[in-house]
Fold this protein.
Amino acid sequence: GAGVSQSPSNKVTEKGKDVELRCDPISGHTALYWYRQSLGQGLEFLIYFQGNSAPDKSGLPSDRFSAERTGGSVSTLTIQRTQQEDSAVYLCASRRGGTDTQYFGPGTRLTVL
Amino acid sequence: KNEVEQSPQNLTAQEGEFITINCSYSVGISALHWLQQHPGGGIVSLFMLSSGKKKHGRLIATINIQEKHSSLHITASHPRDSAVYICAVRRGTGNQFYFGTGTSLTVIP
């Protein structure tokens, strides 16, 4: 069966530009997480969606970061006015309601020049 | 100081050895998660624990809530176990996970 997919797999952008990263969770998974992994750093929680509830945005590092989840499925993470410190691998994970296991996507490697 | 500490940072073992990776945390938690990140970057969830012990194949995870400590054991290690093992904790009823920086394991044939 299809796993979590993310696009693009790689994104190179110039400082100051906006970027959109996409996550397609596993069908039927109600929970969706965004994480980021910077070079040499551990994983960092960004945002959590559960069904139709308001998202938990407590991990977003600044107001340049935002995310949406349309129709309880696809999610888009948007970074406005990118900075070099935004360079990282952005990972998405989804989880079926009532279970603990998160299924991770392959990530999007973002490089801000 | 990171709220989640893992040890060792790097570990090299001979095939067949018994391996232990440790995770200590400094906050009250509702659950602890062990993840495996392969050299290509893909992440797989291994265990979610809130108490006691769980076993899956050659992998065993234990947690001691009072001591704020968890261990991941690998029996009869194999080169395909080579990966980074990451510990993550969830505080209270929140959704946010706090991650350790990982233990890089290399199993030599």
Remarks:
- DSSP finds no helices and ten strands in chain A.
- The first strand of chain A starts at residue 5 and ends at 7.
- The two ends of chain A are 37 Å apart (CA to CA).
- The mean pLDDT of chain A is 93.
